[in-house]
Design brief:
210 residues; alpha/beta; Rossmann fold; 2 domains; two-stranded antiparallel ribbon; 9 helices; 15% strand
């Protein structure tokens, strides 16, 4: 019996204000390693710790890839990242779906994220109140793909893997991470471009999968 639903944040509940900011960082810095490798290294450098400023966060990304970025590129990165969270919005069905599910299930939020964007968006749209627990990479010092991330989240929420379903938009960061933790996973694929056994196109379809 499902007791709790674990939601990813970016791309699942909230749409970034600009096209794929993580991909834009790669483009601005001209990083040429394979994308699957890039994402993990970039997120670990930027999102698995409490950086004091966005400049510090992006300097860590540059150091990770041994890039000496000039001031203009750093400013471009900061401006793009700020624009993304400032223009970010929940998908149109999110509020009503979360409000309904909140009456029946424990809702948990997880995310690979930096502190500069997610906290602002959570407050701006009053999303924090829907969740009994919020676990963020920069607080835990871990990424979702680290085995300890979901294990820690379940322990703190006093839940077992079989009590939960995880909903996310990434095959690697969400689906694989959930499966490795023994948690049933449901992919939300709003553009219907990915293959996965349990898949929805809109959060309104979620209750049919529970």
């Amino acid at each position: 019996m499902v007791k709790a639903i674990i939601f990813d944040f970016w791309g699942t509940l909230v749409e970034n204000g600009v096209w794929s900011p993580i991909k834009q960082v790669r483009k601005i810095l001209n990083i040429e390693v394979p994308f699957s490798e890039y994402v993990v290294r970039m997120e670990r450098a930027m999102m698995a710790g409490k950086n004091k400023t966005l400049r510090e966060a992006f300097e860590k990304v540059c150091n990770e890839f041994r890039i000496k970025a000039d001031e203009q590129k750093i400013q471009d990165l900061i401006g793009m990242w700020n624009k993304s969270w400032m223009l970010a919005r929940p998908y149109e069905e999110v509020e009503s779906v979360l409000n309904g599910l909140n009456q029946k299930y424990t809702l948990i939020l997880v995310s690979n994220t930096d502190p500069f964007s997610i906290d602002n968006v959570l407050e701006k749209f009053k999303l924090r109140d829907y969740f009994s627990h919020i676990f963020l990479s920069y607080n835990l010092g871990l990424l979702k793909t680290d085995e300890e991330f979901l294990r820690t989240a379940l322990a703190k929420a006093d839940l077992r893997p079989e009590d939960c379903i995880l909903v996310g938009d990434s095959l690697q960061s969400d689906m694989l991470a959930a499966q490795n933790a023994g948690i049933k996973a449901i992919l939300i694929d709003r553009k219907d471009r990915q293959d996965f056994k349990s898949k929805i196109l809109n959060l309104r379809e979620l209750e049919n999968e529970l």
